[in-house]
Design a protein that fits this description.
- The structure is a single chain.
- The chain is α+β, with helices and mostly antiparallel strands.
- Helix content is about 20%, strand content about 25%.
- A hairpin with a 5-residue loop joins strand 5 and strand 6.
Length: about 200
């Protein structure tokens, strides 16, 4: 039988201010040690772990900004394995293998080949792949691509018509045509209470 006891600590303010806060580079340099200590991490592609460290510190920066703006920030809590529903491959560790017209294979390093049905071709250079599990239990791959924004072609408008919604008529256009009110609510008018 194991027992655990919890006691409150009362550190001085100077000791609290002196606490060492890890930085992103220190934490990333500790990833190989963590992989040796936790065998589960050996199954994860190294870039994925580095990206998770990046996400952690960018979220912490966002929380600090919100706190400076006066927003109330709660305490940070540890999230277990079940909380993580996304995994991000940033710049490398993934490849799309073309098999047919719509059925391809997405190869993810340290995971393997996963069949994927793509409804459009990705001509641009893929920068990042995020694998996400939705609440329904279905898995999706979100691709971030780098490409040029296409400008929409402007069509020449031969003739424009202005439309005005009115009180006497439902609508009137700039050519003098009127659309009468549909009067769909007149039947229910007697059911409404007045006064």
């Amino acid at each position: 039988m194991q027992l655990s006891y919890k006691f409150r600590l009362y550190p001085s303010l100077s000791k609290l201010k002196k606490q060492e806060k890890p930085d992103k580079l220190k934490l990333q340099s500790q990833l190989p040690k963590l992989k040796r200590k936790h065998p589960d991490l050996k199954d994860v592609y190294p870039k994925v772990l580095q990206y998770e460290v990046y996400r952690l510190f960018s979220n912490l920066r966002a929380l600090v900004r919100l706190k400076k703006k006066g927003r109330k920030i709660g305490g940070l809590r540890f999230k277990g394995r079940e909380w993580f529903k996304t995994i991000t491959y940033n710049q490398s560790g993934f490849k799309i293998v073309l098999n047919g017209r719509r059925c391809q294979t997405l190869h993810l390093s340290k995971i393997g080949d996963i069949p994927i049905r793509m409804h459009r071709n990705l001509a641009e250079r893929i920068k990042q792949v995020t694998i996400k599990r939705h609440r329904s239990g279905k898995w999706f791959a979100c691709f971030t691509v780098e490409g040029e924004a296409k400008q929409a072609r402007r069509k020449r408008i031969a003739k424009a018509v202005g439309i005005d919604l009115g009180v006497n008529h439902f609508a009137a256009d700039s050519e003098g045509r009127f659309v009468e009110h549909p009067r769909v609510f007149l039947g229910g008018k007697s059911c409404l209470k007045t006064g």
